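G., the chain you wanted modeled:
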Amino acid sequence: MKTNFKKLATYFFAGTFSLAVFTACDSTQNATNEAANETEEAMEDAGNELEEVSNNWEAEQEEWETKLNDKIGQLEQDMESATGEAKAEYQEEIDGLKIELDNIKNSTAASWADIKEGVNESFNNLEREAEEVENEIEN
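Predicted structure as tokens:
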């Protein structure tokens, strides 16, 4: 009877130990699976966010192209009535804006921020020059 009790106790402890080991391994595997799922979800979120930024960038790019084309058209109309030095200045401004327009058309998402800053600076310079001309005319 003692032998059977020893065997039974050995089986019980071995079974309990095996169960504990398998549970621990399974828990580790579950944690690994959860971490992998979280990583996959984070990657999907990042992909969606990147796609949204890309869509916004493209829409913004089109908007800026339209604004530049409108400004170039306005300057070309103003240039028609200008003479001499003023006409040359208009042409210079138009040429600069056309370069900016080409930059916008050839831009990538990565370069968009720099290009947008350059175009913004060009617009600000044009506005400043227009104000100076208006002030000179008034005085």
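The chain has a mean pLDDT of 75.

Shout if anything looks off.
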